Amino acid sequence: MSEQKRSFSHVIRERYCKGCSVCVAFCPKQVLVLKNGKVFAERPEQCIGCRLCEMRCPDYAIEIVETGLDKPVEKDAACVDYSVPPEANHA
Amino acid sequence: MSESLDYFRQNRLPHIWCPGCGHGTVTGALTRTLAKLGIDKNNVVVVSGIGCSSRASGYLDFDTIHTAHGRAIAFATGIKLSRPDMKVIVMTGDGDCTAIGGNHFIHAARRNIDITTIVMNNSNYGMTSGQYSPMTPTGMLGTTAPYGNVERPFDLGKLAIACGATYVGRSTSYHVQLLGELLEKALLNKGFSVVEAVVGCPTYFGRKNKLGGAVDMFTWQKDHAVNVKAAAVMAPEKLEGKFLIGELYNQAAPEFTAQYDALIESVRRKFDNFQGGVRGCAQNSD
Ligand SMILES: Cc1ncc(C[n+]2csc(CCOP(=O)(O)OP(=O)(O)O)c2C)c(N)n1
Ligand code: SF4
Ligand code: SF4
Ligand code: SF4
Ligand SMILES: [Mg+2]
């Protein structure tokens, strides 16, 4: 076991995903599919972490986190406190 | 990405743009670039006009102003002159920037004022349901061009260079990494910077011209864009029907607000040397 395989996990914010399929169509490793109109990581073990899905997504609905190094801090739309206006966090 | 989401008003997500609309990809590229550069969000002002693309200002978590149609650059000029320390970014569309706002655009470029202008070019007026714009290619359909557009489109890159912009680049929503690189250089350029992002409007331009859905519009960009570096060694007939992406121009020139500050300084010095700075009118003798 000389070569260590990097692994990635996919944070998906279903509430934001509009099912446009852009991430699915251009993933170089066919990792993603649409399931019930939302993106789903069907073959996460094939992901090479290029983040093209994340960058092309028009909706901030998918994010790649490298696992194995640090555990991802799962941040889902459901966890955001919408009662706090973003301006409140300004210095 | 979580860091870049900090620059977005997350309570406004999901945003209003249609599924697969390239405006979202461009806005994402901007927030990622600002996060990468570590720019303090209190030092950024985003200004936009009217259009689907211009709605970006309402989503970005900076001091933002959503102005009148075509007038984003005029407002941005005022903001930059009063607060030259701020980073001023204009988010605009092909219609907003080159039709009603064309005059502001050419003069801001001529002055080389330090504003970064991001033009989301979807080849039509998306917001008002697909009229042709000054950047709709000849022959394409629009609600105001039912038999095909007879006009010739602007080449925004050439226009910006001819008018005096000091940084000009073009990319697409498909070439999102390149888009990020261009945005980074544009934001760091001290002067008028223009980045044109060729994007798809699947809802109007795509449907009217039977180009398919969002994925097909991204594929179209992939197939029709040629990097300037590759184009330099390509035969002209191979470039037929294609458009250039990459850094189109990058050359420093005196910046407007810096020149203006220098002028104020020199005038002030002149008056201060005059009798201890008495500024009263000489004729006001009593
Ligand atoms: C003074 C004025 N004239 C016309 C309009 C109608 N109008 C709204 S958006 C728009 C065009 C927007 O096109 P573009 O800038 O390309 O934005 P897109 O929606 O394509 O992103 C027009 C003509 C207006 N709002 N105000
Ligand atoms: S990071 Fe790259 S390989 Fe992994 S899912 Fe996204 S596009 Fe596919
Ligand atoms: S994750 Fe983004 S790119 Fe993928 S289908 Fe959903 S909205 Fe479209
Ligand atoms: S109408 Fe066109 S430009 Fe406007 S949000 Fe929809 S796809 Fe985007
Ligand atoms: Mg437009």
Give an overview of the whole structure.
The complex is a heterodimer of chains A (91) and B (286). By secondary structure, chain A is α+β, with helices and mostly antiparallel strands. Chain A has one domain (7-71): Alpha-Beta Plaits (2-Layer Sandwich). Chain A is built from two helices and four strands; from the N terminus they run βαββαβ. In chain A, the strands form two sheets. Chain A has a two-stranded antiparallel ribbon. Chain A has a two-stranded antiparallel sheet with strand order 2-3. The longest helix of chain A is centred in the first third of the chain and has 5 residues, at 22-26. Chain B has 286 residues and is α/β, with parallel strands linked by helices. Chain B folds into two domains: 2-253, 3-Layer(aba) Sandwich (Rossmann fold); 256-286. Chain B has twelve helices and ten strands. Chain B has helices spanning 2-5, 22-37, 56-59, 72-82, 94-100, 102-111, 156-163, 176-188, 202-208, 214-224, 228-231, 256-273; strands at residues 44-48, 63-66, 87-93, 115-121, 124-125, 131-132, 167-172, 193-198, 225-227, 243-250. In chain B, the strands form two sheets. In chain B, strands 2-1-3-4-8-7-10-9 form an eight-stranded mixed sheet, with helices on both faces. A two-stranded antiparallel ribbon of chain B has the order 5-6. In chain B, β7 (167-172), α8 (176-188) and β8 form a beta-alpha-beta unit. In chain B, α6 (102-111) crosses α7 (156-163). The longest helix of chain B has 18 residues, at 256-273. Chain A binds chain B through residues 15-16, 18-22, 25-26, 52, 54-60, 63-64, 73, 75, 77, 80, 82, 85-87, 90-91, and chain B through 1-2, 5, 8-11, 13-15, 17-25, 28-29, 32, 40-42, 61, 173-174, 176-177, 180, 213-215, 218-219. Bound molecules: thiamine diphosphate, iron/sulfur cluster (3 copies) and magnesium ion. Residues 17-18, 21, 23, 52, 122, 126-127, 201-204 of chain B line the site of one iron/sulfur cluster (SF4).
